[in-house]
Amino acid sequence: MFRFGNPEYLYLLLLVPVLIVLFALGQYAKKKALLKFGELSVIEQLMPYVSKSRPVLKFIFLSIAIVFIVFALADPQFGSKLEKVKRKGAEIIIALDVSNSMLAQDIKPNRLERAKQAISKLIDNMENDRIGLIVFAGDSYIQVPVTSDFSAAKMFLSTINTEIVSKQGTAIGTAIDLAMNSFTPESEMDKALIIITDGENHEDDAIKAAKLANEKGITVHTIGMGSQQGAPIPLRRGYGQTEFQKDRDGNTVISKLDQNLLTEIASVGGGEFVRANNSQTGLNRLFNRINEMEKKEMEEKIYTDFEHRFQYLLGVALFFILLDIFVLERKGKWSDNFNIFKINA
Fold first, then answer.
1. Secondary structure class of 240 (helix, strand, coil)
2. How confident is the model at residue 78 (pLDDT cuts 50, 70, 90)?
3. Coil, strand or helix at 247
């Protein structure tokens, strides 16, 4: 089994395209400055030891070294010892609403970001449980399959936004159906589904889906994000401008929490409804209830020892750094003597 001990460092790879852009701009600026002195073909004859390719080659060496250093910081690990262990836990799938209405700011900083923060803290408190993550709007998708790799779950969680599902809407029933098929079939662990949404369901019969899930042994909880008074939905347009979503008549849309629907979904799903506010989202409360459930002891094979492999990546990075050091930007006189295409008159 392979994993990264510190996957958050992988975000540093975003520096590479930035460095490429800066290098290209620097080369363009040099070329533009030389043009002020005349034709490039004439200037190049006056600078026989200036190389066009060597700065590019040195930059490539340095970029490769940076990539390997970033992967080394992420601490790649390989499982070296597989053991059977007994553990008590539950399978928890969180269905997160990513429709535009989750951008409303009646819960700070907005409904979606507040929910993501709470999910991240919930994952930090998990030990023997397994977690999966579904995102939904007009359609539903599995963002994280049920797993005990909490680091990977948090990494994928951080990428979630309202653009991840192209079809707008709030199809809660579809999300419940997808969750029912996403739990581990052969597992006898307790199963719980937590739906985080503002409850404005316009697509399907969520109550019927929740009842069916409960009949299959899945407890359905709901967390209502937002207030019953509601709030406008800010949408980011071009050039960083923000405007509120409007209906066909040009009126500002006010997104309100549908508490009655979410309460009924939790009721038929055998779970609990919790209303979020600016001080707490209710995830910890539901997690405590899940922990109080009678959990069966399960035996499974897991990797208990992992070997670190960052040393090899640092070695490769050092090799390319040395190449960058020893390759000079300018040509040397000695290299001119090895030009096999040079004809002596």
1. helix
2. confident
3. coil
Please report, for residues 35, 303, 308, the alpha-carbon distance to residue 2 in angstroms, rounded to integers and kept in the order given: 52, 10, 10
pLDDT at residue 179 is higher than 90: yes
The answer to whether 103 and 234 are in contact (CB under 8 A) is: yes
Instruction: Find out whether 99 and 168 touch, Cβ atoms under 8 Å.
Output: yes
The answer to whether the peptide bond before residue 17 is cis (omega within 30 degrees of 0) is: no
Question: Taking the mean position of all CA atoms in its chain, how far away is CA 204?
Answer: 28
Which DSSP string do the residues of 295-312 spell out, in sequence order?
PPEEEEEEEEEEEE-HHH
CA separation, residue 118 to residues 151, 158, 269 (Å): 15, 12, 22
Residue 236 pLDDT greater than 70, yes or no: yes
CATH class of 90-294: alpha beta
Report the distance separating Cα 290 and Cα 192, nearest Å.
8
State residue 204 phi and psi, 5-degree precision.
-155, -175
Q: What's the pLDDT tens digit per position in 298-308?
A: 555 555 566 78
* CA distances, 194 to each of 25, 132, 180 (Å): 49, 10, 12
Residues 6+ positions from 30 with CB-CB distance below 8 Å? none
3-state SS assignment for residue 237 = coil
Q: By percentage, how much of the chain surpasses pLDDT 90?
A: 42
154 touches 116 (CB < 8 A): no
Q: What is the pLDDT of residues 141-176, one digit of tens each?
A: 999 999 888 888 998 999 999 999 988 888 899 999
What are residue 163's DSSP bridge partners? Answer: none
* CB under 8 A, 24+ apart: contacts of 311-316: 311/72, 313/68, 313/69, 313/71, 313/72, 313/76, 314/68, 314/69, 314/72, 316/68
Give the residue extent of every domain in the chain.
Answer: 2-78+307-336, 90-294
